[in-house]
Structures are given as structure tokens and as C-alpha cells.
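Colleagues,

For the teaching module next term, I've prepared a clean inverse folding example: a structure given as C-alpha cells, and then the sequence designed for it. I'd like students to try predicting residues themselves before seeing the answer, so please don't circulate the second half yet.
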């Protein structure tokens, strides 16, 4: 059976192939409602399928959005990628996801690959891109939106949550339970990059401790972001002579590792150790005990990132501060902090 072409649709609808193109692409010129209906009816009758490759070559853009994340195996990034995919689908776009594995060369690899495929835009969830990544973006003159993190090296529109404020909420809450102090499980870097959410979580913890007159000296511990390595760090910390009464973890995955280590060492949570995390991944409500954490509105952030990467009219111009879209954080109270029945508090 011969392939149905755009000429066939135009012939059946009694119009030109240009008008058929305007209907399929929603522009660039308007089409009268009656003519549009005839074209759509012809497309349905003939079973016509537009050649997306040809369309992309003609427009120099595809229906694809590229997305780069550090590690899609981690629940936070998996949930964020899923939220972006859903938001993109509402706009008729598909998402390609690449994992940088926290390595600059992998991030640059995916930048080149996705931009070379003429994606409609790029959403970058970075570990703090290098000057190489920044140069790559500038060379391609790409539509890029930074999501979750805003590195100093790249001055593009960013969608983030209030990381400092959220960490302050969690730390204050642990202190309000009467704990003498709160230790912090931060990231792996002694001096994290500017704009790193984990660095902001540590800063929020530090501010809350200082506000209450507590020292942070010797109470910040480095740990990888995933639960497995954080569990190993927590085993050493909790088995030592100076076990903290409470721990704020920069990520929920770290907190899950801490809860596992506490159970193995027969330390009662929250009776002997209070724990809080950050991100409110879905598993946080299923841990034993359920994890008190900080909520970030990933679906809303994902929709904002997709809208910004696709719509030039929405892209903010001006100073670096004006190019930032920040969503508020909220404390989600469960039992790991020492509270009774689970509830949420702004």
C-alpha cells in the first residue's frame, strides 16, 4: 500500500499542501475553522502520519527536550525526571534523559549530543557544571533552563526551591524537641560549588544552629548523597562515643541510610536519635519510622522549567537574581523527629 502523503491530504481536503502544513504545525499562518476541520477529517480518513524527521529538518527543531541529571537511580532525580516528562507531554513534547554520573565529561557529552539533535530546549539538573559545559551552551546558543541547582558558571534562567529556608525549618524543628544540638550530614565536598543545593542545606542548618546559640564546630560530617554510602558513614558516626542526639541530612536518601544504620545498631528513633531529611521523596513516608523532611514542589518546578525552556516570552531577562524562579519549601512532620501522628507544617 502506497504511503499517504501531504499532497493526498491536500487533494482530499480541497486545499493546498501549505495549508495542510499550517494545520499540522499550528502555524505560522492562521487557518479558517471550516478549512481546518476539512484538513483534520482528511488526515483521519487517510490515516496520514506526519514525517517528524522532515519537520525537524525544516524547522531545525525537534519535538524533544533534553534533560541531564546527575543520577536517575536516586529517588529525587527519578521523581524530578518523571515530573518533567509529564509536563512536557502536556506541551506535546518528549524528553530524552542522560545521566552525568556527577562527572563533568559526561555532562559535556550529553550537552553536545542533545544540542546536536536540535532539541527544542535543554533542562539541566547539574552537579555544578564546569567552564567547559558553560562554553558548550554558549557556543550552541541553546535554550537552557537550570533546574534544582544554579551553578555560578552558567547564567541561565533557573528554577529552584528555597533550600536554605527549608533546611532552617528542619533544623529548628529538631532543636525545638529539646535536643542539645543537631549534627548535619552534608555532601562530599569540603567547599561545595556556589548554587549547590546541598551546600544551601548545610548553610540553612548552620544558620539555625547559630540562631539558637549552638556551635557547629565538629558537627558537620561529609557523606555521599546515596543511602548506601551514607549508611556506612552513619554506622561509624552512631557507633562512636560522641553520638549526636539529632541529625539533619541534606538528602532523604542519606536519611534513609541513617535510619538503617540506627536500626542495625539498635538505636531507637526517635527515642534516642531524632532524624530529618530534605526532598520528601515518596519513600520518606514508608520508612520506619516515617521520615520528617522538607518538601519541594517538584511537579510545579517541572512545569515551570518546561514552560520556560519552550516559551521565549516567559524567559526572564535582567539581573541574575531576576532570572531566578524560586519555589517555597515546607516542613513535612512525621515520627522520626519525635512527633506523634504525621502531619504537614508550612
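(Answer key — instructors only)
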Amino acid at each position: 500500500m502506497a504511503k499517504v502523503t501531504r499532497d493526498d491530504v491536500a487533494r482530499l481536503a480541497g486545499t493546498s499542501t501549505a495549508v495542510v502544513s499550517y494545520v499540522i504545525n499550528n502555524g505560522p499562518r492562521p487557518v479558517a475553522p471550516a478549512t481546518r476541520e476539512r484538513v483534520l477529517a482528511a488526515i483521519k480518513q487517510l490515516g496520514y502520519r506526519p514525517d517528524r524527521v522532515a519537520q525537524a529538518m525544516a524547522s531545525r527543531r525537534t519535538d524533544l527536550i533534553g534533560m541531564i541529571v546527575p543520577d536517575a537511580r536516586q529517588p529525587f532525580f527519578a521523581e524530578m525526571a518523571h515530573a518533567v516528562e509529564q509536563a512536557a507531554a502536556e506541551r506535546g513534547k518528549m524528553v530524552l534523559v542522560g545521566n552525568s554520573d556527577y562527572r563533568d565529561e559526561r555532562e559535556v557529552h550529553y550537552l553536545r549530543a542533545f544540542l546536536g539533535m536540535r532539541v527544542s530546549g535543554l533542562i539541566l539538573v547539574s552537579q555544578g557544571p564546569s567552564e567547559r559545559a558553560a562554553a558548550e551552551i554558549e557556543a550552541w546558543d541553546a535554550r537552557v533552563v537550570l533546574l534544582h541547582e544554579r551553578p555560578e558558571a552558567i547564567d541561565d534562567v533557573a528554577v529552584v526551591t528555597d533550600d536554605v529556608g527549608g533546611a532552617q525549618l528542619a533544623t529548628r524543628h529538631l532543636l525545638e524537641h529539646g535536643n542539645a544540638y543537631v549534627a548535619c550530614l552534608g555532601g562530599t565536598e569540603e567547599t561545595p560549588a556556589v548554587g549547590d543545593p546541598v551546600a544551601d542545606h548545610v548553610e540553612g542548618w548552620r544558620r539555625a544552629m547559630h540562631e539558637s546559640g549552638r556551635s557547629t564546630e565538629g558537627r558537620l560530617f561529609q557523606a555521599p548523597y546515596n543511602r548506601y554510602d551514607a549508611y556506612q558513614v552513619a554506622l561509624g558516626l552512631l557507633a562512636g562515643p560522641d553520638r549526636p542526639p539529632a541529625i539533619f541530612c541534606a538528602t532523604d536518601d542519606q536519611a534513609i541510610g541513617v535510619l538503617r544504620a540506627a536500626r542495625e545498631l539498635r538505636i531507637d528513633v526517635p527515642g534516642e536519635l531524632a532524624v530529618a531529611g530534605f526532598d520528601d521523596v515518596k519513600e520518606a513516608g514508608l520508612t520506619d519510622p516515617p521520615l520528617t523532611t522538607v518538601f519541594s514542589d517538584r511537579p510545579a518546578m517541572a512545569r515551570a522549567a518546561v514552560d520556560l525552556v519552550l516559551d521565549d516570552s516567559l524567559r526572564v531577562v535582567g539581573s541574575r537574581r531576576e532570572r531566578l524562579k524560586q519555589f517555597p519549601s515546607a516542613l513535612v512532620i512525621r515520627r522520626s523527629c519525635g512527633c506523634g501522628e504525621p502531619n504537614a507544617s508550612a
